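To close the chapter, one final illustration. This time we ask the reader to focus less on the individual chains and more on the assembly as a whole: which components sit near each other, and how the overall shape emerges from the parts.
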Amino acid sequence: MSLGFACKPRHCLNVGMQISAKVDYGIRALLVLAAAYDGPETRLIKSEEIATGQEIPFKFLEAILTEMRHAGFVISQRGAVGGYRLSRSPKSIALADIMRVLDGPLAAVRGLRPEMVSYKGSAENLADVWLAVRVSLRKVLESMTLDDILTGKYPKEVSGLLNDPDANVSRPMFVTE
Amino acid sequence: MSLGFACKPRHCLNVGMQISAKVDYGIRALLVLAAAYDGPETRLIKSEEIATGQEIPFKFLEAILTEMRHAGFVISQRGAVGGYRLSRSPKSIALADIMRVLDGPLAAVRGLRPEMVSYKGSAENLADVWLAVRVSLRKVLESMTLDDILTGKYPKEVSGLLNDPDANVSRPMFVTE
DNA sequence: TAGTATTTCTACTGATTTAGTAGGAATACT
DNA sequence: AGTATTCCTACTAAATCAGTAGAAATACTA
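The assembled structure is written out below.
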């Protein structure tokens, strides 16, 4: 009846789905721009303002915003009155789009897309698991837009998930045997 | 109308949810043991047999199996007729359990559990997204057992996901603007 | 036209994680 | 005693993550 230690002893840093700092910062920056969005003539917001308001490292944020511009999510202007604004409505930008731009595909198995991996023997059906994982991530992340997060009004499949009784309880990482 | 490049130019290795080699190998190894499972007196299977059968690097697999033993999923025996067997029924081992042992929590944001992060200003509701992501991962990975994968008979919420018309089509990673 | 403030680009860094490998010690059966 | 296997410790090379530094390009303003 020993207390089996089933996880890394201390802070347990590594993880299945790791939301990176880059994605976290990037989405927060777009949310700030989304809150100011008011059609194509929206005022420009400086990266400095976003960085201090959201406590994001300034130079890192600049790099992220430049990636966002390459992806077409934001429009920028240089110079004394420069800054950034959203290129289109916050209703039209889904979280999955942002995450794919900043971090690549939503799900992969050993670096490969789920439909690219194949297994043999007793593991034959394992690919189905990764496909199901990807679909379930898509259902959440493709359905939620920047506007949904600003307003707090989520698509009902998502609010269904949040109503789950233990949505905000974390599971133990050790196993007793 | 330029073709905006929204992702890393070439092989796009980084990813949101990365199923690591360790988890992939570990689950496959347990599936092999699960297929042989026949109560507490199941025959022992050598790591060499699993490694060649599933094309997993031998020494890496050994390390993974030892972690599995620490977690209580397998029982081992050394010596000439040694090997591994499952410690309990494949019906009682969920994929989420295995993944937490090998890779830590299912989801984290910048290294923190989703319920530990908090945001301010326009990003206030962002934590809900990560909670929803975690719940949706749990719904898939806590409901599927080793036995489900062996038999190909999945809980109906999972088979619902797999029936999604584009379960096995991958989404483009670049954005046209 | 000169000045100023901002974005943009290129390059670099240190820490951590990933995916292993090497070699030997412990152990269980014959 | 011999043999085959698991178990443990240590090590490595490559990639990724989370930034930083500094200068060039650019847009407005006076």
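Residues 13-14, 46-48, 62-63, 65-66, 69, 76-84 of chain A lie near DNA strand C (CB under 10 Å from a C1'). Confidence is low (pLDDT under 50) at residues 1-12 of chain A. With these observations in hand, you are ready for the problems at the end of the chapter.
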